[in-house]
């Protein structure tokens, strides 16, 4: 499978699809501080949604609630027809491992492992044999342009290459939703464009819903749709 090249302009899918990921009436408090103030958001399969807004206004809180990392104080989170917020901690951990993918600004790769083992790790944790997991990891790394880098450790990779490994790790389990928190924040503009193109390409070609938290207008412009969150409230931009 190949992914779109940098500078690709993405269009909203022409045939409306039901949302694969949805938050309804989401409220989250941190003591007396309101993190989310009744947020409704939905993302369809094959759609990339950018979430923008000032720092401290709820972007990462929204991502964590949608991903089942945090539980909302009020409201509902649904993934492919299953209500996530009512699951226990153990069930949400399994859901994140099997059905969700994550890409962070600092990539969170294990320094002592080569690229293929970093990508294969979540599969092996979930019980897949090492042979099968490494095989799938290498195939996924090839799809993000790293077929020749499978044996390199994170310290031997450029920032853009390391972030591609993180994308491969997020995609290797065929997730229904992928969450990216400032995935280009540590990259130059050209490399960042390549990284976000890979993420959006994954949404389009694999049918995953992608949520990208970003402060960068150029990154947001490469997604299908943009919402802005201010004081815990979301509006379409």
UniProtKB/TrEMBL annotation:
Residues 21-237 form the ABC transporter domain. It comes from the Bacteria. InterPro entries: AAA+_ATPase, ABC_transporter-like_ATP-bd, ABC_transporter-like_CS, ABC_transpr_LolD-like, MacB-like_ATP-bd, P-loop_NTPase. Keywords: ATP-binding, Nucleotide-binding, Transport. GO terms for molecular function: ATP binding. CDD domains: ABC_MJ0796_LolCDE_FtsE. Pfam families: ABC_tran (PF00005). PANTHER family: IMPORT ATP-BINDING PROTEIN (PTHR24220). This is ABC transporter ATP-binding protein. It comes from Kribbella sancticallisti.
């Amino acid at each position: 499978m190949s992914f779109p090249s940098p500078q690709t302009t993405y269009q909203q899918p022409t045939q409306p699809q039901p949302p694969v990921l949805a938050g309804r009436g989401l409220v989250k408090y941190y003591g007396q501080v309101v993190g989310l103030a009744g947020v409704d958001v939905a993302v369809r399969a094959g759609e990339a949604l950018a979430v923008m807004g000032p720092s401290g206004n709820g972007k990462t809180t929204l991502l964590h609630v949608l991903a089942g990392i945090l539980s909302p104080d009020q409201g509902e989170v649904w993934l492919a027809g299953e209500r996530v917020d009512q699951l226990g901690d153990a069930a949400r951990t399994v859901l994140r491992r099997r059905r969700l993918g994550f890409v962070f600004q600092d990539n969170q790769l294990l320094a002592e492992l080569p690229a293929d083992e970093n990508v294969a790790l979540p599969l092996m944790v979930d019980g897949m044999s090492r042979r099968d997991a490494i095989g799938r990891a290498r195939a996924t790394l090839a799809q993000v342009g790293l077929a020749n880098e499978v044996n390199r450790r994170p310290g031997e990779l450029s920032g853009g290459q390391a972030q591609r490994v993180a994308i491969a790790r997020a995609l290797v389990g065929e997730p229904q939703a992928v969450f990216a928190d400032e995935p280009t924040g540590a990259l130059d503009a050209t490399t960042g464009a390549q990284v976000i193109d890979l993420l959006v390409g994954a949404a389009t070609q694999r049918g995953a819903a992608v949520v990208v938290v970003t402060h960068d207008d150029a990154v947001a412009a490469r997604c299908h749709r943009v919402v802005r969150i201010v004081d815990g409230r979301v509006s379409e931009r």
